[in-house]
Amino acid sequence: MRNARAAARSQPVAVGRRLAVTLTAFTVLTLLVCLIAPLAGSTPVHLSRVFDRAIPFAENVDAQVFFIARLPRVVAAAIVGSGLALSGVVFQALLRNPLASPDTLGVSAGASLGAVIAITFHADVAFAGISAIPLAGFAGSVGALGIVYALASARRRGTPGTVLLLAGIAISALLAAVGRFVQYFADFTDTFRSVQWLMGSLDVGGYAPIVASLVPLAVALAGFATLPRVLDLLSIGPESAATRGVDTVRAERIALVSASLSTGAAVALGGPVLFVGIIVPHIVRLIVGPEHRLVLPASALFGASFLVVCDLVARTILAPVELPVGIITAVLGGPFFLWLLFRTVL
Amino acid sequence: MLPLAGPRAAAPPGARLALGAQGQAPVQRPLRIVSLIPATTEMLFAMGAGDRVVAVGSYDHFPPEVERLPRVGALLDPNVERILSIKPDLVVLYGTQTELQTELSRAGIPFFSYALGSLTDIAVTIRSLGARVGAPGADAVADRIEQQIADIRTRVSGRSRPSTLLVFGREPGSLRNIDASAGTGFLHDMLLAAGGADALADIRRQSVMMSTEMVLARAPEVIIEVRSAGDAAAAPSDLRAWDTLAAVPAVKARRVYLLVGDEFVIPGPRAVLATERLARTLHPDAFR
């Protein structure tokens, strides 16, 4: 609290310089990670062969591994990581609760339910190169957040963080139960496929789903860009924010819509990778402080790097068998966060 | 009528199935058999004990006569009440259904424990199940299955074995979450009997989730997708998803196939049919 107040009052010039330095550092980190990750993997790939134009693409296994298997995967991981991290930051600020994340507001549960229904009823629609299951996941996550927001804003005086959080938890539980109900009546193959989808997979194998996910993500980013100052003030309290002229209702609406779009896009692309939205904002805040002008872009960049690294570990550590990326995010993220926390406290 | 010591004496020495885990000692020829497993249901009918089967599992659909029998659940959800109310004198169940076994023992109902195994285990199971239920036709059925599989092996012998990827599941419309058979299990055994080589032979797992990178690295010469008959997501048009991996030899040579049928997912008497279909796909010239 105190830090946020101090941050809100700090000198513009100093903050501007810190912003530039921090963002440059994170950008460099992300670029390095994204450049190195496609080169590493369970199959040895020779960079010279990858870019050798003399070999026709259809014969060039190295190039195919690089451009079809690995590069889309790294890009997808970056998009999913930044989307989930950004929405985590926004939810935590909005709800003034460090445990808030896309998962606690029912967004992931909605995505899971959508996907489970699409799998069980063998939905056969495709749109812009995306198949039914990710589309249903996207619709589910956006729908879930819509329900939560509608419930919470039934109160006329705006939506205090607790009400939103409680509504989210209730809807999460309900949607998860409905999902299990649907799975129970599915046959064994469909249940197995649902379970696999729920573990998350960044192996997109092509660029069409990535391009499709950029559309809602771009809208979300536009929304997030208007938020840093507002989130700083909302973190102190909605009354303080209101006295400074912030239209809290409108700000909440923008924040929630943007966060649900970015989560929906991320989940549609890679499945519900659960740990990223709650851990990355905290790690970033431990490094750069609480000011959202720094935290928002830094979280996007760090979230991207984090998930790219986790995916790299997931696909190499037990090669040739691949682990679901969600296991690695939990195993890496948790201890790292503990280490950072105790480093600053001790 | 089999003597009291019959079942154990009749079973081949190498039988891996837990004949010891049969609940009560078998006393007489069972007349009311409940089978929770599609494979054992088919085996019972094939060996001539079908008239004594009084209830089947949720996923049993062959032979067609089972459709009019009551259903009592399956691996995950056996309906104990229904099973008890049917008053069986033998229940064929999975070895892992320990709770059901406890309840049946308490009720004094004998059971026969089944474990999923390899292709050769099918004949072994038929013989031991046949001995257990007193079906004299069982040995002949087992012999016939072994002979037919040996015949297929002979037909395709001497031909080069194409490196084959055997896929039994994936997300429809894309190449995500590819489930492939690797190294062990009855799908792998059928592939070998049909004259193929397993592209994932060194992995030694019944199933493995494949990434696109693995498919590109393993470069199989043939890709065969198998699906159960009830899998509504199985359509030949879905095979187009493999076209994104154009460098894979199987895709280049257009040797990507879809085989649909319950015989691929049920390790029972129809495994012979499945093996033959695999052999025809891999070596069509051997069957002209």
Note the overall shape of chain A.
Answer: globular
The end-to-end span of chain A amounts to: 20 Å
For CATH, the homologous superfamily of chain A is named as ABC transporter involved in vitamin B12 uptake, BtuC
Give helix % range of chain A. Answer: over 70%
The CATH architecture of the largest domain in chain B is 3-Layer(aba) Sandwich
How many domains comprise the coordinates of chain B? 2
Structural class of chain A: mainly alpha
Mean pLDDT across the residues of chain A is 83
> What is the SS-derived class of chain B?
alpha/beta
The CATH architecture of chain A? Orthogonal Bundle
Poorly predicted sequence stretches spanning 5 or more consecutive residues of chain A = none
CATH class descriptor of chain A: Mainly Alpha
The CATH superfamily of the largest domain in chain B is Nitrogenase molybdenum iron protein domain
Number of strands of chain A: 0
Walk me through the structure:
- The complex is a heterodimer of chains A (about 350) and B (about 290).
- Chain A is mostly helical and about 350 residues long.
- Chain A has 15 helices and no strands.
- Chain A has one domain: Orthogonal Bundle (ABC transporter involved in vitamin B12 uptake, BtuC).
- Chain A has helices at about 1-10, 10-35, 45-50, 60-95, 105-120, 130-150, 160-185, 190-200, 210-225, 230-235, 240-245, 250-270, 275-290, 290-315, 325-345.
- The model of chain A has no long low-confidence stretch (mean pLDDT about 85).
- In chain B, about 50% of the residues are buried.
- Mean pLDDT of chain B is about 85; it is low at about 1-20.
- Chain B has helices spanning about 5-10, 40-45, 80-85, 100-105, 120-135, 140-155, 185-195, 210-220, 250, 270-280, and strands spanning about 35, 55, 90-95, 110-115, 165-170, 180, 195-200, 205-210, 220-225, 255-260.
- By secondary structure, chain B is an alpha/beta fold.
- Chains A and B meet through helix 4 and helix 8 of A and strand 8 and helix 8 of B.
